[in-house]
Specification:
The chain is mainly alpha-helical and 530 residues long. It has 19 helices and no strands. Helix 3 runs antiparallel to helix 4 (109-137).
């Protein structure tokens, strides 16, 4: 058996015999790029203490990964389609690994942000390549099941990231949460060469470089605006980004409608199934990432769990994703996409709204049911949405299809952390100010209102100067304010997801008969070796 897989994918022949091994490699690659965000949520307190991060610094440590990741996926997917999907995967793993090494050695805020940006570039190359290679490697009759496994891997990463980071932080510095990516990326590269087949689209002509550039301008500006506006205020930076995003979108749509070979045919969004599937993916990850963002803080800072214990308590989410994925594999072919997706979104809405019951006496048990419902919702609904999105693209544009799906996912996550995080922060700050304003120096009150972790740091200083009584009162006030903020933010998140459920239910078509793979589609498949 050769070390390097050299036979191109060709669906005119029998299915690729090592496709399940290839799927494992693709899921491993997906795992580390999703975990790069979720593990940071647990490592953030240690990074904050070590580097002296402000709230703004920490937000940009998180979002330096998100901006290039979201902005570059469409371009990277198109490049992979034209030149080499496996090559894009390998290059992305190498860049991601290099950024991880840099992050593990960083000793300043700027260095960590730069390392996270490099990792985001690598992730933008990896993410669409995983979906396009999966779709090119599996025949249509097996594709939905393979996508279900891919989706379940995303759910696993949401919970596994905090668990792994928590285990590493028990006895090591936060830098190891970066460094652990390196051997995994190395293994994935070697395994990809061995079992992932070469794949690229048999297309001629130049890439739509102008369309690609306009998409980068639009998406980068949009994500920057989403981050900057709600979190740091609508100053010149956020307003300028909003204007640039609008101009970029208008230019992109106008150019793509005129171009004979557009990087993305924007007319696809007129299709109800395609538009509804993208909206559902975006809303799901808005709710999931937004909820995980404040749940991890509540578990650590309010309930006092350590990083590892926090990761363990997020595992039910991953288990529920796998359960939901198993159900959707059997249910969707029978009931249709609209039933499973809207049912999943309704479950997710119920899960988020259950968090409105969080209060002063809430323990982990109050978070278990929401985690289970949210995980089941993701497993039940995201896989059919991804299958619908990928099915809307011809085989020569699988990388672009994967990029569209992944951009919806990443925009949803960015919106969740930015919008829900902003509501959480403002509600919490108001609660702390109402409770302790005037009884502490203004600077101390401001620091306590910046984050619940900041309140604990202020309480330690108060204990040294004024004794344990005032310090304990501050901690109680911060815990109460944060619990109230979680409940209020969850109400907003539940309303957003609930309203989206209605819109998606109206957009998605009813059950359709399965369409057999057309003979001409084989000509569009990847048949050129790299």
């Amino acid at each position: 058996m050769p070390l390097i897989a050299t036979t191109p994918v060709d669906h005119a022949d029998p299915p690729y015999p090592r496709r399940r091994a290839a799927l494992a490699v693709l899921c491993l690659s997906l795992l580390i790029i999703v975990m790069a965000n979720t593990s940071l949520l647990v490592a953030a307190p240690a990074m904050t203490r070590d580097l002296g991060l402000s709230g703004s610094d920490l937000q940009w440590v998180i979002d330096a990964y998100t901006v290039p990741y979201a902005a570059l996926m469409l371009v990277m997917g198109a490049i992979g389609d034209k030149y080499s999907r496996r090559g894009a995967l390998l290059a992305g793993l190498a860049v991601f690994g290099a950024g991880s090494v840099t992050g593990s050695l960083a000793h300043s805020t700027a260095a960590v942000i730069a390392a996270r940006a490099v990792m985001g570039v690598g992730a933008a190359m990896i993410m669409p390549a995983t979906l396009s290679l999966l779709t090119a490697t599996f025949p249509r009759r097996e594709r939905a099941r393979a996508i279900t496994v891919w989706t379940a891997t995303s759910g696993l990463a949401i919970a596994a990231g905090p668990l792994l980071a928590g285990r590493l932080l028990e006895g090591h510095a936060w830098g190891l949460t970066f460094l652990i990516n390196v051997p995994v990326a190395g293994v994935a590269m070697i395994a990809a060469l061995a079992v992932v087949p070469p794949s690229r689209a048999a297309v001629s002509g130049r890439l739509d470089l102008v369309g690609g550039l306009l998409s980068v301008v639009f998406l980068a500006s949009l994500v920057y605006m989403i981050i900057e506006g709600p979190r740091f205020g609508w100053g010149p930076g956020a307003i300028g980004a909003a204007v640039l995003a609008g101009l970029g979108l208008a230019g992109f749509v106008a150019w793509e409608l005129r171009h004979p070979r557009p990087i993305l045919d924007v007319r696809r969004f007129a299709d109800r199934a395609f538009a509804g599937a993208n909206l559902a993916v975006m809303l799901f990850f808005l709710a999931a990432f937004g909820s995980i963002y404040y749940l991890t803080q509540h578990l650590q800072f309010v309930l006092g769990y350590g990083p590892l214990a926090t990761g363990v308590r997020l595992l039910p989410l991953a288990g529920a994703v796998f359960a939901g994925a198993a159900v959707t594999g059997a249910l969707t072919p029978r009931a249709g996409m609209r039933v499973t997706v809207t049912a999943g979104m309704a479950l997710g809405t119920a899960g988020v709204l259950l968090l409105t019951r969080v209060g002063d006496g809430s323990g982990y048990g109050d978070f278990l049911a929401p985690l289970l419902l949210l995980g089941a919702a993701i497993g039940l609904s995201v896989s059919p949405c991804t299958d619908a999105i990928m099915g809307a693209f011809p085989e020569k544009q699988l990388g672009v299809g994967g990029a569209v799906n992944d951009t919806s996912l990443e925009l949803g996550g960015s919106l969740g952390i930015a919008i829900l995080g902003s509501i959480l922060a403002s509600t919490y700050a108001s609660g702390v100010d109402a409770a302790v304003g005037g009884r502490l120096p203004a600077q101390a009150t401001e620091a306590a209102g910046e984050s619940v972790g900041g309140a604990l740091a202020v309480a330690r200083k108060v204990a040294e100067t004024a004794g344990p009584g005032p310090a304990a009162a501050l901690v109680r006030a911060a815990d109460h304010a944060f619990a109230h903020a979680v409940a209020h933010t969850s109400q907003v998140g539940g309303i957003i997801l609930g309203a989206g459920t209605v819109v998606v239910a109206l957009l998605l078509p009813g059950r359709r008969r399965a369409v057999p793979e057309a003979p001409h589609e084989a000509a569009d498949k990847a048949t050129v070796s790299v």
